[in-house]
Structures are given as structure tokens and as C-alpha cells.
Predict the structure.
Amino acid sequence: PIFEPLRDVALFRRFVVHSELKTLVWPNGADLAPEFLRAAIKVAA
């Protein structure tokens, strides 16, 4: 599973915002779709 390594806080903190996709991307290739992030933020609010 590509998200399993992100349990390591040091790796999790290494995300960047992809300039074209406007989403979070990690060095191991994991990424989150903008639609997912928006829905997760609305649920948390």
C-alpha cells in the first residue's frame, strides 16, 4: 500500500504541492486528489 510509509511522520512532512495538479504529493509517489481533500476538509469542519 502506497500510503503505509506515510505513517512515518518524517516522511509525511515531506509533502509538496504539485504545481500543475494543485494537490499534495509525497516523495514515494503517493498523492491525494484535490476532490478528496476538499471533501475531507468539509467533513472535518
About this structure: The longest helix spans residues 34-44.
